[in-house]
Amino acid sequence: MSKHEIALEVNGRPVSATVDPNMSLLELLRTEAGGLEVKLGCGEGVCGTCTVLLDGEPVNSCLTFAVQVDGRAVTTVRGLAAEGELHPLQEAFLTHAGSQCGFCTPGMLLTAKWYLDRHPRADREELRSALSGNFCRCTGYTKILDAIEAYRDARQEVSVVD
Amino acid sequence: MYSAPFEYVRASSWPEAVDLLEGGGEDARVIAGGQSLVPMMMLRLAAPSLLVDVSAAADRSVDLVDAELVLSALVRHADIEHSEVVRGSCPMLTEAVTHIGNVRVRHRGTIGGSLAHGEPTAELATVAVAEGATVTVLGPGGERAIPAGDLFVTHFTTSLEPGEVVTAVRFPVPGGRRGSSFQEIARRAGDFALVEAAATVALDEDDRCLSVRLVVGAVSDRPVDVSQAARPLIGERIGEDAVGEVARAVAAEIEVGPHTHAGREYRRRLVSVLAGRALLTAADRAAGAVHTDHGNGARA
Ligand SMILES: Cc1cc2nc3c(=O)[nH]c(=O)nc-3n(C[C@H](O)[C@H](O)[C@H](O)COP(=O)(O)OP(=O)(O)OC[C@H]3O[C@@H](n4cnc5c(N)ncnc54)[C@H](O)[C@@H]3O)c2cc1C
Ligand code: FES
Ligand code: FES
To answer: Which of the ends of chain A has fewer CB neighbours closer than 10 A, N or C?
Structure first.
């Protein structure tokens, strides 16, 4: 198996690595890029714990090989806010208890943020549908959706004031 | 999870992909979105020696040319979902892709990969047969066109020859008063379908049926074209009673394969319900369609 030199951007920082073709993006992020916030759940594209944004779009890092993302930009949940700070969506998850064990939370946050950036007025049903591929085994989804809706509403108020 | 080791190479054009596949021998495989192939590799159901990545072989183009919607094989499910050109010319595609997997799968998975994979429950396979699509393929022997109805052989088996790649999928965009509908039932959002039904109906000025197509997906080893059974509707105004008869006849005749999560009789019942819904919805939409010569944007 020939190794490949790859260079990508993770949360705005350049990362380069020498990888075997069968190393997944998830593995690369957790090892070479130090991104332990990216979680392995099912490994089959179903559960959403491994969600990252690839050039701004949600993908399964478990079903993407690292060599495929040479030259691309990856955002993990750490990329949402500066080190040591929380993004308002994360604050909303705290306020509404949208996270218990936290394993699904990075995927929930990234998917919700991506969807609301594109559909700022999405209603609860649309949010539910966008998040249908992100499984939570703790909260039962109600509080997650409450948190996301609260963030959506707060964001709209801010932009009205602007 | 790690797949078996393999070599990886990127193709910058379709002809280059064909050359790389030929050079890679029997165990070389194309990778597009990887949303079907990679799970199989991770589960060690597939162990290609070489992956030829075609994601940069062409643009993800969506073009309306001479009453034909031409999609690059690399067009992703999410591209279809959000394309106004697709919605205006072949709305059954728009309706069907929202049933595929989840947002992550839809952002990587491609129409070429979906058709080449030959999964019998693939929504896009059912739509391609129902809409009479043609698949353009390139191989060591040159280019050829395969009608979608001839592409699917059985579970995970297509009529693509070794070394051939799908480069484009072409959907006819007929004019006139035409409507379509795609219906599906799955156990949960994003699960593979238990049953799919896809119908297209064309009406004359008098609301009488000029032509009808009906395809049932996910019950057999490939999409099943049952348009013949809908022929009694031709020349008539389409109503619930006649549609009900057609739907029950289709359900009674069709061969329904086994399924882990649902019994045969339940799925047979779903065939009847979904075929009926698809025909009636397609007819309603055709009745609401404005007459045009190209059908472009004819449907609201
Ligand atoms: C969790 C999950 C849920 C899913 N749910 C659904 C669903 O509900 N409905 C559905 O239809 N699909 C579903 N899929 C599959 C998804 O739609 C895939 O994207 C699609 O089936 C294959 O497209 P791909 O581009 O990812 O192909 P790949 O995985 O890259 O390739 C699949 C096969 O096609 C071949 N291939 C790919 N492109 C070409 C080409 N241009 N020419 C020749 N051969 C080619 C490959 O060699 C491989 O054999 C799901 C996948 C996952 C992970
Ligand atoms: S770990 Fe990738 S989707 Fe479950
Ligand atoms: S908080 Fe535990 S899985 Fe969602």
So the answer is: C
Cβ–Cβ under 8 Å, residues B124 and B86: no
Question: A2 to chain B: which residues are within 8 Å by CB?
Answer: 7-8
Using the mean position of ligand 3's atoms as its centre, give its distance from the Cα of residue A101 in Å: 5
The H helix count followed by the E strand count for chain A is 5, 5
Q: Is B19 on the interface with A (CB under 8 A)?
A: no
Is residue A54 classed as helix, strand or coil in its secondary structure? strand
**Closest chain A residue to the Cα of B33, Cα to Cα:** A64
pLDDT by residue (tens digit) across B206-251?
999 999 999 999 999 999 999 999 999 999 999 999 999 999 999 9
Identify residue B189 by its one-letter amino acid code: A
User: Quick check: A60 and B53 CB within 8 A?
Assistant: no
Pick from A2, A64, A111: CB nearest B103: A111
Which among A1, A46, A133 has the least Cβ separation from residue B5? Answer: A1
- Asked if domains A4-80 and A88-161 share a fold, the reply is no
Give the homologous superfamily in CATH for domain A88-161: [2Fe-2S]-binding domain (1.10.150.120)
> Three-class SS string for B135-162?
EEEEECCEEEEEEHHHHEEECCEECCCC
Residue of A nearest to B1 (CA): A43
Backbone angles phi, psi at B70, to 5 degrees: -110, 115
- Helices A105-118 and A142-161 cross at an angle (nearest 10°) of 40
Element (H, E) at B81: helix B77-82
The domain spans of chain A are 4-80, 88-161
What whole-number percentage of chain B has pLDDT above 90?
93
d(CA B217, CA B254): 11
Tens of pLDDT, residues B145-204: 999 999 999 999 999 999 999 999 999 999 999 999 999 999 998 899 999 999 999 999
The tokens describing B191, both together, are 């699960």
ipTM attached to this prediction: 0.96
Name the CATH topology of A4-80.
Ubiquitin-like (UB roll) (3.10.20)
